[in-house]
């Protein structure tokens, strides 16, 4: 008996430990007794105003007669340490924008002298509260440094109305709980009270309804077994619908179930976000009473999970560096559902006509260019292309230009040229599209298919853009029908976000998200042929597909859901191997499943051949963060296994993006664009530092450097004297290199990144001169701009140099000139390739 009991306990613990965690709650800290100091202030606007709870007062730096120069510094002393996870800053609310902060950094400290940067970036010039959420760090002091004004280059004032601080909080253990409810539905798969404390978000407690509902109030009682200190409750509504969301509620506590004390009341919004009412109590019994249904849908009450919040400050354990580290949060001046790495190593980001909202065909797009080196973003409103670029297709062409097609202005094409920092209009598409995917193909043209989200529904067959001629040509035989998913949303969703991989001789493999794969031949009028199915997978809308080894034709797929919204995503993962010959059948094999189910996540090819999959959510639904996967996973192709990495601080779900940065870290950003004040807007990104850059103590490893890089001139391309498969780069380094990797610069929107692909390259030579041989086929080494990383014997990658790989022949059949243009000094003209 005791053996059985201990076995069952162990089993329970086992399942409890393995349960994926889809939340990261924070509580608002009480500011009583806190102090604020600043480098400068007006007598009438002291720094203490940021803690006074009044939005109409603010701290302002000295202004009369002459404002003092930037930077300005505000320091808050919370008097006691806490595990800080979020800082919120409310700008002045009196209608003036003078003093609004643009560039800034936020740091925390335990002693007021050693500071850790937790956020860095640029805030937009508006009066909305700015939230910087970061991986929790211990601290007593907070320092906000303003280095530029948001509204002008001459304003040197700084002003802040309020600063609030949120702490990370743990749920109390539920292992000793017994729960009961006013009623529970036992029909169907069972919606007993215990389903609200069992872990999975997909199981729920529901008040009985099948044989008739009972009028409100409905209650849910927790018996903790003994009095326990509590500082709040967590209520997670059901994922699979709205019915039964609690509206008006009360929380009462008791030690004997006779005498109850009310500790919290209120009315929750009719949405699926986690509700976190805060209170302080020590009690054995906690009773959650529902007095109404949030949407007045009837006498229904339901809950996915109910937890209580632990009042003790969570113990701080520094993140295990073998699981990577999320460095500072990048505050961005817009919510960016789209982004692309530029040939100069900066990141182009854009939203829609507004920085936090979309709607209509406005002809305007808000953009920003984020510099990963300085952390600063510069903003621009693009009007000259008359293109609202919300939810478009994106491809980088052979010249490194970012070709943005469709979206809210469904037929428009806009082109960003980094070397001149200009946007120019391209020719309109023949078919209006939004949510299509595009792919640069081996001859330099850009294939485009699908996209019923915008510009009318259905019939979105292929067309192709020739950047040299600025022309769009319909390809009537590249039919969209074979790539449609069976989506509950119908054709509006069924042709969205194709997984396209350009391959040899102008072919494109459409590897998903439909279970059916297809080859598209982009010559002439086009022509599609079936390419089999993805093994035991299903339609995987908003899953990820990453070409982690283009030489071997290897693609990892991960996650996705049958339907775009209102569905449950999956953990499944597969490896697709594209055969050497375009048009032949790919092979598909299952690999280990992820721990976390993900739709709307992002997949990124890393230099060492591993694939980083981050973000996404279990229950896929646009503009929600419910059931977000905070724990990214890293897939190793040599073992076919996933390793959970350290969790990030911000959910990255619908409209999030992920990009490999030149320093071999990853930017995982954005999510939302759901209008002013929407809680699912994420005006930020986080920087993930993969394990390959970290020492055992968490410090950064010494990394190799690429010292010089040059194109080795080739003669006799393709003839008998050509002993190498492709062009070559000559590279000198500061140490022994075990391998190189080429990774094409990425573009990211809506889970799609058809630009990134990785080419592993053996290291021939020695640090004085390594030869890096580029595959000869432009269907493999797709021309354009690529990172090149040198990886040392410890497996540590260098920072990338960015090289341009050029084809010998463009789509017009003419050879490229020898002096092919190069944009900046660290970009070298890449080696010549044989004709496709
Ligand atoms: Cu979108």
From TrEMBL:
Residue ranges occupied by any F5/8 type C domain in the UniProt entry: 17-168, 169-311
Record keywords, A-Z: Signal
SMART domains: Kelch
Taxonomy, superkingdom: Eukaryota
Signal peptide residue numbers: 1-23
InterPro entries noted in UniProt: FA58C, Gal_Oxase/kelch_b-propeller, Gal_Oxidase_central_sf, Galactose-bd-like_sf, GO-like_E_set, Ig-like_fold, Ig_E-set, Kelch_1
Pfam families the record matches: F5_F8_type_C, GO-like_E_set, Kelch_1
Protein's name in the database: Carbohydrate-binding module family 32
């Amino acid at each position: 008996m005791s053996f059985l009991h201990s076995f069952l306990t162990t089993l329970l613990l086992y399942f409890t430990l393995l349960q994926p965690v889809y939340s990261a709650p924070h509580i608002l800290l009480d500011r009583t007794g806190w102090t604020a100091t600043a480098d400068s202030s007006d007598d009438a606007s002291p720094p203490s105003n940021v803690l006074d709870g009044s939005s109409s007062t603010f701290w302002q730096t000295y202004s009369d007669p002459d404002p003092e120069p930037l930077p300005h510094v505000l320091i808050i002393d919370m008097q006691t340490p806490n595990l800080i996870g979020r800082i919120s800053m409310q700008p002045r609310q009196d209608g003036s924008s003078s003093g609004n902060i643009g560039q800034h950094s936020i740091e925390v400290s335990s002693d007021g002298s050693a500071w850790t940067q937790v956020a860095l970036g640029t805030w937009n010039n508006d009066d909305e509260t700015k939230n910087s959420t970061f991986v929790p760090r211990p601290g007593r002091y907070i320092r906000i440094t303003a280095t530029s004004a948001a509204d002008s280059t001459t304003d040197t004032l700084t002003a802040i109305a309020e600063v609030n601080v949120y702490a990370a909080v743990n749920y109390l253990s539920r292992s000793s709980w017994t729960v009961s409810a006013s009623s529970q539905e036992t029909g169907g798969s069972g919606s007993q009270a215990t389903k609200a404390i069992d872990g999975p978000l997909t199981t729920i407690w529901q008040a009985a309804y099948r044989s008739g509902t009972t009028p409100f109030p409905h209650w849910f009682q927790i018996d903790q077994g003994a009095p326990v200190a509590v500082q709040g409750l967590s209520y997670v509504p059901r994922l699979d619908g709205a019915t039964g969301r609690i509206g008006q509620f009360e929380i009462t506590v008791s030690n004997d179930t006779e005498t109850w004390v009310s500790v919290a009341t209120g009315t929750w919004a009719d949405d699926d976000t986690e509700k976190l009412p805060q209170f302080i109590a020590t009690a054995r019994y906690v009773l959650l009473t529902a007095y109404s249904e949030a949407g007045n849908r009837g006498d229904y009450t339901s809950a996915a999970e109910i937890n209580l919040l632990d009042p003790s400050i969570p113990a701080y354990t520094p993140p295990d560096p073998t699981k990577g580290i999320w460095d500072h949060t990048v505050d961005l001046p817009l919510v960016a559902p789209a982004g692309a790495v530029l040939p100069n190593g900066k990141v182009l980001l854009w939203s829609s006509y507004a920085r936090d909202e979309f709607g209509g065909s406005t002809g305007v797009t808000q953009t920003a260019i984020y510099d990963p080196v300085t952390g600063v973003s510069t903003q621009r409103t693009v009007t000259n292309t008359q293109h609202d670029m919300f939810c478009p297709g994106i491809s980088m062409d052979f010249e490194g230009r970012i070709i943005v097609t469709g979206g809210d202005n469904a037929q428009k094409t806009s082109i960003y040229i980094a070397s001149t920092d200009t946007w120019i209009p391209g020719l309109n598409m023949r078919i209006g599209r939004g949510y299509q995917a595009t792919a640069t193909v081996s001859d330099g043209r850009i294939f485009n298919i699908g996209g019923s989200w915008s510009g009318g529904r259905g019939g979105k067959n292929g067309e192709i853009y020739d950047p040299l001629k600025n022309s769009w040509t319909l390809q009537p035989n590249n039919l969209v029908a074979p790539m449609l998913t069976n989506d509950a949303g119908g054709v509006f969703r069924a042709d969205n976000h194709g997984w396209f991989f350009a391959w040899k001789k102008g072919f494109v493999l459409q590897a998903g998200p439909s279970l059916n794969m297809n080859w598209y031949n982009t010559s002439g009028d086009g022509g599609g042929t079936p390419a089999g199915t993805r093994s035991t997978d299903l339609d995987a809308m908003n899953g990820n597909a990453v070409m982690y080894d283009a030489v071997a034709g290897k693609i990892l797929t991960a996650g996705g859901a049958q339907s775009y919204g209102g569905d449950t995503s999956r953990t499944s993962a597969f490896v697709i191997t594209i055969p050497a010959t375009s048009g032949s059948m790919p092979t598909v094999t299952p690999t280990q499943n992820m721990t976390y189910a993900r739709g709307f996540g992002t997949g990124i090819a890393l230099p060492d051949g591993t694939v980083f999959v981050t973000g996404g959510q279990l229950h896929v639904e646009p503009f929600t963060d419910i059931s977000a996967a905070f724990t990214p996973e890293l897939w190793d192709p040599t073992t076919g296994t996933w390793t959970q990495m350290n969790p990030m601080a911000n959910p990255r779900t619908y409209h999030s993006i992920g990009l490999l940065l030149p320093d071999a870290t990853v930017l995982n950003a954005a999510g939302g664009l759901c209008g002013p004040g929407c809680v699912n807007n994420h005006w930020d990104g986080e920087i993930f530092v993969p394990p390959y850059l970290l020492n055992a103590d968490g410090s950064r490893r010494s990394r190799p450097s690429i010292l010089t890089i040059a194109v080795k001139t080739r003669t006799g391309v393709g003839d008998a004297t050509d002993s190498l498969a492709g062009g070559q780069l000559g590279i000198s380094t500061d140490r022994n290199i075990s391998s190189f990797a080429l990774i094409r610069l990425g573009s990211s929107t809506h889970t799609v990144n058809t630009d990134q692909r990785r080419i592993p390259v053996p290291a021939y030579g020695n640090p004085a001169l390594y030869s890096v041989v580029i595959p000869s086929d432009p269907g493999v080494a797709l021309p354009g701009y690529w990172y090149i990383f040198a990886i040392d014997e410890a497996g540590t990658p260098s920072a990338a140099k960015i090289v341009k790989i050029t084809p010998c022949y463009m789509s017009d059949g003419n050879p490229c000139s020898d002096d092919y243009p190069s944009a900046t000094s660290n970009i070298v003209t890449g080696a010549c390739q044989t004709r496709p």
